[in-house]
Fold this protein.
Amino acid sequence: MHTAIVIVVVLLVVISIAAGLIWVERRLLALWQDRLGPNRVGPLGLMQVLADMIKIFFKEDWIPPFADKAVFIIAPAITMVTTLLSFAFIPWAPNFVVFDSNFGILFFLGFSSLGVYSVVLAGWSSNNKYSLLGGMRASAQMLTYEVFMGISLMGVVMMADSFSFSAIVKAQQHMWFFIPQFAGFVVFFIAGIAETHRLPFDIPEAEGELVAGYHTEYSGMKFGMFFVGEYMGITLISAIIATLFFGGWLGPSFLPPFVWFFLKTFFFIGVFILLRAGLPRPRYDQLMEFGWKILFPLSLVNLLVTAAVLLFIK
Amino acid sequence: MNLFFYIAGIVAILSTIMVIAQKNAIHALLYMIVSFFSIAVIFYLLDAPFIAALEIIIYAGAILVLFIFVTMMLNIVIEKKKEKRWLKPKMWVIPIILAVVLFLDLVFAVYSIPFPSVDKGVVMPKHLGVALFTQYLPAVEISAMLLLVGVIGAYHLGSQEKKVTHRFFEKK
């Protein structure tokens, strides 16, 4: 019974946060760019989300006749499913987790690597050269960044001696892991941006070159799923950074644990949005070079040094 | 537990058959992903969640993405016609005979040789790592060498001198 309640709460909260981020992002971007942003609908423009959702639901859901119909329909669902499944492993408060697996991190990495299919298949099934280019870029980019996304987390795993998110949170009672694992944190954060293909790493959909990249042919709620899926990805990566490197729900006791968890998560969501406002998009080859030549060796060195220090201490 | 195992097994067999019988290469690869999933479920049910996770991360999440990456660039319409030509009913005869022989062999083996027990508790990553670096060390080293060869080969193939084609920047 407890698990059922947790599942419903997690599902509702995650989807409403992801939808609400549409408004948050536009308001914050406007703030940093000295504009007002959406402020007409409802108090502070909060109802803008509702208006957007109604608009997106009533748009014509068009499938191009030249598309591979079955794959075209499945593709946007994959991103929603894989991202939502990853939330099952993250503890929001003590004992508030859907499935406290001993292998939580591994399953998170598995689901995030499956998320590639959504973009790649969308690009391929649209049967459109810009979509295909977007899909190809996405698969190369996400495959690259996945490699050291996993390796950068292994330092944390070694320090906590467990793949379970709850055990890692409990291991941070004396010190948050971003201090000893700073290199791992930086690499994971950058890889996380690339995994969610957010600006500045949004080259799969680079609208200046590829129309809209992999989702050029999508409309209506299918596009909406990509849209909301991206915000869910941001929420997921922020939640995982907060859990693995910043102590998750741990914090001074004047606030309940889940408030600490949400504060930390929202801080990183804010950083994601600030990055969009502050950084230009790199070129495609620069992105790949940065990944393989700087981040990948950095994460390997971090892994080796952490292992050596841990061996020395024990 | 047994019921889950049989469901996953049936899905694995059906999806693998579909991999062979599909005419569209990308659809075939999608069925292959499903078959990897069902194998991951089987590993999970056999108390090896670590292997199940690796199956998803490495096979379904990385290797198959590369397969799709390459296949995406083929012209599917032409390939489909080729596949249609190749997948004649006659083509199925010899593989089916061979598969039946193998199947009978397997059935015979299962019935005559005592089945090794798999019930040894959950396989933790630590056990796997220890086994890999003691008992199976030669295999690990050989595969490491193989990977190194692959890396060097890829570097050699990819490391051509950059050609600047603009007429003002032409190198002499």
